[in-house]
């Protein structure tokens, strides 16, 4: 009898359900159910957690119907999900309010309390993170101050996948990857940091028990099975945060291997056997799904977002003709590259401020060097290059701390061969592209379930599940040009830092 793993990737705009055939090691089908993000006021971003559950149930039923796979053939369920969520629930697991998601900025108001508890260096050395208002700990502090009745009633603070796991099994658990991104996790002893919690007047017993991503949270209850169209008693494997699941799904399972996710945002990530303390704090660290390796990474805000914004501006019909417009503009850019037509046009991809490498919320996007002959191809090429330069700063920092890394790439941007050629040339590295670039995060959840069921020996099974499909080589003819542009890119940002500060001061 064929066996399948059902993986749910709980994202910002919807939940993607994926069915994976454990015999053929292939994805049988996927189905996505969307839900809204609520913005109660500027800087706030929330989800209704019951809509997560509704989406999980609906996507599961639709996927089984579409693929004709019977519920009794599902061997296990597992998850990847958005991280840095703050969802307070009562003893029965019922939400006490909407979930405050990763994009929410309200925690910025609680930074003075975090700085009072630990200076930047101490906080970074303990947690692997800079002090930042987007972490769940800052959102907890906001609740304590602004919604104290909710705070006092809170039995547990959960992440997105943790809530779904409770709906399925009744267990209150999380995994090391999600726990390490909350902002109160000690990377050295792999436990919640009691001193930090005490200083912040938070309570360790409101945090869920930490288990390995491959551990079984429990068995699917009869009630949950009825709601989502499955058979009760199926093992529910914990899984992990989406960033760490993407690492595993991309096929990165040991130090020396690294990857990039080229999506709306973008990040470079790798693995390390030891804690990496970056002196410049360009990167931060999480615990990987195996609960053994550390995962240094650097995340930028507006990668695909920059390109999408610009394509919408250049092509009024872009949203209805994306494939045709990308084909058109990529051909123009390829012609420029082949003819060696270079310019000093610089694009800074900071439409929403920036995390890595600058950690500057005041930074803004800019084109520098515009001239009358600059056409759409040159401008869009500069946009692609700007993202590549920003990611190169992150990559250079990682290699400075860990040595040379072999790179692979996943995410929607991986479908754009022209952009990949530019990135490989800027980085001066070959880039391996796996077979599944859009489902890699879900494959990370599949690996958790497969290892938990002892179908796969360890995370190296990704080599068979998501093998390398092609390799992008750097163009050596562009090497000197891009080295010059890279230095100009850094100088341009630094020159504008005082302007960004003045712009913030002048804002109404």
Summarize the structure in words:
It is a single chain. This protein is of the alpha+beta class. The strands form eight sheets. The chain has a seven-stranded mixed β-sheet with strand order 18-19-17-16-22-23-24, sandwiched between helices. It has a five-stranded mixed β-sheet with strand order 3-2-1-5-15, with helices on both faces. Strands 4-7 form a two-stranded antiparallel ribbon. Helix 1 (49-67) packs across helix 6 (160-169), helix 11 (304-314) runs antiparallel to helix 13 and helix 13 packs across helix 14 (417-427). The longest helix is centred in the last third of the chain and has 28 residues, at 479-506. The radius of gyration is 23 Å and the shape is globular.
Q: How is this fold's topology laid out?
A:
Blueprint: E1 4-10, E2 14-21, E3 26-34, E4 46-47, H1 49-67, E5 74-81, E6 87-89, E7 99-100, H2 111-117, H3 120-127, H4 136-146, H5 148-153, E8 156-158, H6 160-169, E9 173-175, H7 176-179, E10 185-186, E11 191-192, H8 194-200, E12 209-211, E13 216-219, H9 222-228, E14 235-237, E15 240-241, H10 242-249, E16 257-262, E17 266-270, E18 284-287, E19 294-300, H11 304-314, H12 322-338, E20 346-348, E21 366-368, H13 376-402, E22 406-410, H14 417-427, E23 431-434, H15 440-452, H16 462-465, E24 468-472, H17 479-506
Parallel strand pairs: 1-5, 5-15, 9-12, 16-22, 22-23
Antiparallel strand pairs: 1-2, 2-3, 4-7, 6-8, 10-11, 13-14, 16-17, 17-19, 18-19, 20-21, 23-24
